[in-house]
Amino acid sequence: MLSSIHTPRLLRFSNLKSLKCLSTSQSQPTPLPSTTPPPHSQILTTRKSLLSREISAVDLATTFLHRLNHTEPKIKSFLYISDVVLKEAEEIDRKIAANEEVGPLVGVLIGVKDNICTCDMPSTAGSKILENYKPPFDATVVGNVKECGGIVVGKTNMDEFGMGSTTEGSAYQVTANPWDLSRVPGGSSGGSAAAVSARQCMVSLGSDTGGSVRQPASFCGVVGLKPTYGRVSRYGLMAYASSLDVIGCFGSSVADAGILLHAISGHDKFDATSSKREVPDFASQFVASDHLDSKPLKGLRVGLIRETIEDGVDLEVISSIRGAASHLEELGCTVTEVSLPSFSLGLPAYYILASSESSSNLSRYDGVRYGKQVVADELNSLYGESRAGGFGSEVKMRILMGTYGLSAGYYDAYYKRAQQVRTLVRESFRAALDENDILISPAAPSAAYKIGEKKNDPLSMYAGDIMTVNVNLAGLPALVLPCGFVDNKSVALPVGIQMIGAAFEEEKLLKVGHIFEQTLQGCSFIPPLVADELPC
Amino acid sequence: MGSIKALHLLKPARIATDSFLFNFTKNGISSFPLAIKPKHSTAQRSYSVKSSVLEPPNIPRLAQTARISLTPQEVEEFAPKIRQVIDWFGQLQAVDLQSIEPAIRADTEGDNLRDDIPEKFENREALISAVPSFEEPYIKVPKVLNKE
Questions:
Q1: pTM of the predicted model, to two decimals?
Q2: Which of A146, A463, A526, B22 keeps 20 to 30 A from A277, CA to CA?
Q3: pLDDT per residue over A210-268, tens digit each?
Q4: Which region holds residue B137: left if phi is over 0, alpha if psi is between -120 and 50, else beta?
Q5: Is B23 on the interface with A (CB under 8 A)?
Q6: A Gene Ontology CC term for this entry (chain A) (predicted)?
Q7: CA torsion, points A270, A273, A278, A284, in degrees to nearest 10?
Q8: Dihedral pair phi/psi, residue A334, rounded to 5°
């Protein structure tokens, strides 16, 4: 069935479609007519229907809460669900009835990753050490979405402090992939990705230190956007590796991810690393598919990163990415292969930097000022026992590895070398992006794998981050959007393509991503679990 | 599933700056632990620092430094995993990075430091209510004994 895999250059998108999307086996999703409409912006639709009084914010919120309650026992994407969603919706209806001004996210239901501080909801980062912890302030991004009229639905599940790629590392629950409940949603922002995929909320916020927005977006068949380091304030994001952490967006369409990014971008005096650069209006460039000409991306130079489609990557993933590259060519792009020589060094360098920085950042969880505290008769025992009881195994191990890497005499051999590799990675991206407008690659070497499959093998899980970590080392923006499916016996699993741009060029990525998505025919990325009951 | 086998400990050979492309091997991860024999790896690698300096991690010592009280079972469970990862980190020793400047973080346009003027935090009560043990005006902790 996949005989065309080895003729990549000739694999036209239409062939891919017949392989992946119109499969005649019993696989899900069921065959779709080629007239399946492209994804639309739930944010813009919501705003339009609220302002035209077609629907009330309360009705809309009720629909989503109903679906959330129905699907949550199976998916478990939320650690906390707000009890004031309807009250906030009522307030929006009142404002609209009174013709008061409403923001660009009016009535939009938003999930927020649990490592992003919310002062009216617990914020645990998936860790027992912060069980029931309520921060005394909202993260800047949470303040932004609230000011724009958004309604925070709840806090989404995650690998403890972001350390993991499956969301199995949560101290509270394991989130399931809406496409196949026996599989992981990816991580660490697995709850945020699964919630958007299952339409439990319209958009969500996640964080991406080494791929934690992009890999779960790929696994769950949603759009994931990691902005340039500095584009979005990190104030109120619980720090894991400060030189790499960014807050990112999930949506069911590129437009939604872009509109949400616009709402949270910009300089913040509470984050000295946030950029003062002007934030473009990402939404203004989203052209409806029927207004596109035949070669809407004519002249765009696309580099396919050679190292990401070599041995070790799932063949069906490679096939999907090659299919997506062909689709870009049909849209007028010139696609060439490009090599990033330092690519494979990025993975160990990333893990050295991330674990070293985490060992320092997580020293604040000492049981004294917040979080779990054990009874002890002297201070060092209080620290040691509180941390022992509060942290899970993966977090403890990463702190220990980081402590080792930063130890006197070892710093030059590990941390400094990793920083030197970061320079190499940055330079190789710069060279590749001089020659190309954007770079493309898979978002992960495979589609979603089984729950438990990599749980006890840290290196095997770390290896899954190879596609994404280099982008964090270079601080670049990247957009992941679903581009095809992998057939896995009876279940079809989504595959995402990663588009990488130069620093602060989110606008370009969103434009390309939007056109790609609007012209990708015959694929629907709504999981069968919710497809039947979806009129939204 | 096809995860990349970018774990190159099997062949920790010296790699020149102009050719540090690694070959992804099909059998990297599963056979990987077998390849970790500390003596073998220190003997084979050419570290740019003295290899004798890089002793394998001593888990109880690290745990003490990091202020995490580990149970003996945890020490036993974590030790091989941590050694495995640290050995994997070791592949960077084989890369010639001599003239490369380290990058503290990604290129940013940050460093927009604000003036160092204290501002009053509005939600003082919530801040204090999060403290596990508080007696106005102090955060209470047990006796500080310096065992060392």
A1: 0.88
A2: A146
A3: 999 999 999 999 999 999 999 999 999 999 999 999 999 999 999 999 999 999 999 99
A4: alpha
A5: yes
A6: glutamyl-tRNA(Gln) amidotransferase complex
A7: -90
A8: -100, 115
What integer pLDDT is reported at residue B45 of this predicted model? 35
The residue type found at A290 is D
Q: Quote the ipTM score.
A: 0.88
Percent of chain A with pLDDT over 70: 93
CB-neighbour burial class of residue A347 (10 A; exposed 0-12, middle 13-18, buried 19+)? buried
Residue B55 DSSP code: P
Residue whose C-alpha is closest to residue A387's, from A78, A128, A122, A12? A128
Q: Give A175-207 pLDDT, tens digit per residue.
A: 999 999 999 999 999 999 999 999 999 999 999
Distance from CA of A446 to the nearest CA of B (A): 5
* C-alpha dist (Å) from residue A302 to A97, A282, A398: 48, 21, 36
* Pair B44, B71: CB distance under 8 Å: no
Q: How far apart are CA A435 and CA A24, in angstroms?
A: 41
CB contact at 8 A, B106 and B94: no
What type of residue sits at position A281?
D
Cβ atoms A485, A179 nearer than 8 A: no
B134-135 and A78-81 beta bridge pairing: unpaired
Q: Which residue of B has its CA nearest to A306?
A: B21
| Chain A residues lying within 8 Å of B95, measured CB to CB | 345, 417, 421
Long-range contacts of A92-95 (CB under 8 A, 24+ apart): A92/A50, A92/A57, A92/A149, A92/A151, A93/A56, A93/A57, A93/A58
Q: Number of A:B CB contacts under 8 A?
A: 279
Question: What number is the average pLDDT over the span B82-97?
Answer: 93
Q: How close is the nearest chain A Cα to the Cα of B104, in Å?
A: 6
Residue with tokens 């699907």: A71
A133, burial (CB in 10 Å: exposed 0-12, middle 13-18, buried 19+): middle
What sign for the dihedral angle of Cα A474, A480, A484, A490?
positive
Cα–Cα distance for residue pair B54/A412, rounded to 1 Å = 11
Tell me what pLDDT residue A163 has.
Answer: 97
Q: Which of A314, A339, A413 sits opposite B54 (nearest CB)?
A: A413
**CB-based contact A72:A173 (threshold 8 Å):** no
Tell me the C-alpha distance between A143 and A137, whole Å. Answer: 9
> Distance from CA of residue B144 to its chain's centroid?
29
How close A465 comes to chain B (CA, Å)? 9
Residue A244: its chain B contacts at CB < 8 A? Answer: 105-106
Q: Smallest Cα–Cα separation from A469: which of A324, A344, A313, A304? A: A344
Q: Is the pLDDT of residue B55 over 70?
A: yes
